[in-house]
Write a structure and sequence with these properties.
There is one protein chain. The protein is α+β, with helices and mostly antiparallel strands. The chain has one domain. It contains 2 helices and 3 strands. It has a 3-stranded antiparallel β-sheet with strand order 1-2-3, covered by helices on one side.
């Protein structure tokens, strides 16, 4: 198992999870344009959890923000 930075080809995988109704109570449903903006934002990290294939993801936002939130 490892965490790695998300790549453009991972957006479809992330969307497959965010559009799954069983995950609705737990995660947001950002479209691919928003996910691409996250990838470009220096205060955001998108990570993919995988063994041999992607199994999950995390988006850490507001890194370095004055509020101290992540």
């Amino acid at each position: 198992m490892r965490l790695r930075p998300a790549e453009p080809q991972d957006l479809a995988f992330i969307r497959s999870l965010t559009t799954d109704p069983s995950y609705t109570p737990f995660i947001g449903d950002d479209d691919e344009d928003q996910l691409s903006r996250y990838r470009a934002d220096p205060a955001t990290r998108m990570m993919i959890w995988e063994t041999h294939v992607p199994a999950g993801f995390a988006i850490f936002r507001e890194i370095g923000h004055d509020s101290g939130r992540v």
